[in-house]
Amino acid sequence: ENLYYEENIRVTNKVLDEVHATQNRIVVMNKCDLLNGREIEENERQVLISAKTGKGIEKLKNMIYDNLYNK
Question: Do residues 39 and 33 touch, judged by C-beta distance below 8 A?
Answer without folding.
Answer: no
